[in-house]
Amino acid sequence: MSIPLSCFTQIRSYILRRAPRTWTNGVKYEQVTYYPRHKDHKDPPIKPTKLLMVQRVEKFKGNPYWDKNILIQLKLDKVASDIAIVKNTPEMCTLLWKIKHLIKVTPINMPDKLPNDESVQTWLHENGDLLMAPRVDPDREKATIEFINNPKRLDRKTLKEELRYRWLNPYDL
Known about the structure:
Among the domains are: 25-36 and 47-109, CATH 3.30.1390.20; 139-168, no CATH class. It has 4 helices and 7 strands; from the N terminus they run βββαβαβββαα. It has helices at 65-73, 90-98, 138-149, 156-168, and strands at 27-29, 32-34, 51-56, 83-87, 103-107, 121-124, 130-133. Strands 4-3-5 form a 3-stranded antiparallel β-sheet, with no helix packed on it. A two-stranded antiparallel ribbon has the order 1-2. It starts with 26 loop residues before the first strand and ends in a 5-residue tail after the last helix.
């Protein structure tokens, strides 16, 4: 009782994963070789960001084990909406270059002046903008609490009850 060999067909072959040898005019950036479209292509001068936001956009299943290992290392193996914040270093860029077909990389735009204290609230938007809001002063916080607890304040609940009463009893003054 032997199993026919036709059921063991190989689906993917990763032997030809490397760049063809005919590509000769590659530009070496640290550990990554970049092949420009045109020979006279010059990159515009840029100021690189310190941090990158990485999000997986393709499925985890069905990828080779070396791509999965990199995704596991970045903790992007669970949910596709998870993000990873990584440093913009040559070693990390090399890892991201290997899985660039599976991820979306967004540079994080940080403000020029970063605060030193830890009492700052931060928000990271999907487009990579990092917003910082300083802590509210104690005087302003105290004034807000006094305003909320003031019995003369016309809040939504009081206005709703009073206007409903006047609507139901228009001639009772």
